[in-house]
């Protein structure tokens, strides 16, 4: 087995206070795997190889073993007709540097060992491609914003195969880029890979040489959706309800430009004539979606209300307390309540399993703000919001939990949570709202960005009313719009636009 450098894709997952690295795909060979969210170490896997001058689809399994800072991959693949087999073992070392910036991680990945052999049978003939050298260098940067982890990386590499030990060689030059994000409502990673293939075969006194290339686009996607189902039973205590679904899909699209090889005596002449074999293909895996029924609220003041659907969704997700008799949509939303809604919407606070013992030593937690002590029922949510930098105090370390929230404050909080304030231009600039001059300076960038990405719509007349208090109903609609943005728009930017869908 040989030693070499290679890239390893890592996707960052946010939990309330710690960032975990997670392997999101099966190595960096341009293939895709099926993840049924069953946490099995062995996954179904597909990959296309181009070493022979034509695309060959291989299918099989990849076994992933994670131990400390090392990762091991074992591939066992074959073509559908069984004439082509591939065996590959890779061991990687992961180096993570988080010393320079508290929310950013720089990763460098190295392969400690590799072993790869491809066998192609054609009747009684057999050709063996053995990987004799593998140079691969990568670095990725991960930026962990309050509710989203963004990451990107790039790499270059060279794989050199011997043909039947000493009859020739194939050199594959590889370049690639990664773009990805991960948050509670979904994750997408897109890889764009380019391979230049140079083939040399010595057959007696004749040397056959050709070159070609292939482009591979790979996308890994996890999405949570909320679907409404009508209740067909008329005589029932409820008219319908929502279901939370979660599914994963992986897509591989490839295009190739290779020589035309017809395996006849005119093979070399055709290569010299530069006849090209061009084509493309698509392969994918989709998981069966998991399903979970959501709670059905029974507020007596929302039937036919303009925000009824949004209120039901949030209550079904248990973001809104559905145990009350009335929702009170026209009442101003309190800062404490908005903090709790956001923390629940992006799962910032997870329930901890209590130890099974008769006495539990009480935790010592200082006030998160001077007016938010441990006795506050929403202490954990406000604490998480503060530690993530999503909501700040007012004045002398006060949170004003019962204070009302303005529209400008709500939008600023959401954009700060996403970490995308940089999308606004340098001042001075104006938004498209007719009351732009009333927008506070501290909220200008956030409102501009929210307007650009469709989170801040304003009134039909073109006003935003930045200093008006946001009502509970408006907050429910706004938060649902935020969740939908996390579900769909991120995927559009990180998959559809990059891949040209």
TrEMBL record:
It holds the Pfam family SLH. Residues 294-356, 365-428, 430-493 form the SLH domain. Keywords: Signal. Residues 1-21 form the signal peptide. It comes from the Bacteria. InterPro entries: Cell_Envelope_Struct_Comp, SLH_dom. This is S-layer homology domain-containing protein.
């Amino acid at each position: 087995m040989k030693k070499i450098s290679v890239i390893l894709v890592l996707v960052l997952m946010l939990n309330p206070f710690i960032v975990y690295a997670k392997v999101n795909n099966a190595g960096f060979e341009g293939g895709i795997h099926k993840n049924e969210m069953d946490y099995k170490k062995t996954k179904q896997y597909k990959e296309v190889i181009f070493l022979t001058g034509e695309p060959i689809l291989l299918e099989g399994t990849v076994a992933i073993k994670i131990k400390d800072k090392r990762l091991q991959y074992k591939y066992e693949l074959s073509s559908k007709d069984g004439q082509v087999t591939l065996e590959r073992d890779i061991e990687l070392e992961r180096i993570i540097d988080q010393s320079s910036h508290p929310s950013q991680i720089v990763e460098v990945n190295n392969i400690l060992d590799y072993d790869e052999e491809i066998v192609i049978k054609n009747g009684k003939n057999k050709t063996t491609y053995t990987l004799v050298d593998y140079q691969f260098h990568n670095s990725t940067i991960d930026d962990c914003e309050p509710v989203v982890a963004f990451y990107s990386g790039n790499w270059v590499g060279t794989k050199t195969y011997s043909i039947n030990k000493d009859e020739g060689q194939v050199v594959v030059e590889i370049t690639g880029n990664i773009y990805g994000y991960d948050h509670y409502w979904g994750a997408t990673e897109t890889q764009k890979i380019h391979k230049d293939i140079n083939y040399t075969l010595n057959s007696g006194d004749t040397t056959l040489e050709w070159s070609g290339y292939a482009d591979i686009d790979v996308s890994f996607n996890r999405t949570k959706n909320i679907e409404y189902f009508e209740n067909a039973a008329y005589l029932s205590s409820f008219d319908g309800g929502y279901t939370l679904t979660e599914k994963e899909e992986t897509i591989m699209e490839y295009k190739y430009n290779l020589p035309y090889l017809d395996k006849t005596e005119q093979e070399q002449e055709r290569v010299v004539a530069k006849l090209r074999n061009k084509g493309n293909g698509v392969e994918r895996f989709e998981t069966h979606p998991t399903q979970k029924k959501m709670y059905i609220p029974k507020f007596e003041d929302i039937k036919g209300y303009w925000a009824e659907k949004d209120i039901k969704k949030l209550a079904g997700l248990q973001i809104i307390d559905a145990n009350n008799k009335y929702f009170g949509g026209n009442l101003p939303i309190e800062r404490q309540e908005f903090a709790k809604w956001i923390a629940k919407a992006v799962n910032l606070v997870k329930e901890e399993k209590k130890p099974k013992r008769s006495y539990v030593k009480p935790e010592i937690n200082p006030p998160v703000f001077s007016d938010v002590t441990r006795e506050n029922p929403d202490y954990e949510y406000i604490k998480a919001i503060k530690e993530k930098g999503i909501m700040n105090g007012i004045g002398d370390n006060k949170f004003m939990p019962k204070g009302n929230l303005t529209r400008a404050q709500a939008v600023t909080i959401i954009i700060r949570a996403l970490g995308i304030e940089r999308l606004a231009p340098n001042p001075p600039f104006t938004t498209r709202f007719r009351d732009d001059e009333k927008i506070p300076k501290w909220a200008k960038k956030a409102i501009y960005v929210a307007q650009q990405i469709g989170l801040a719509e304003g009134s039909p007349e073109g006003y935003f009313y930045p200093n008006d208090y946001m009502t509970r109903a408006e907050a429910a609609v706004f938060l649902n719009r935020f969740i939908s943005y996390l579900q769909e728009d991120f995927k559009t930017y990180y998959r559809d636009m990059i891949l040209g869908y």
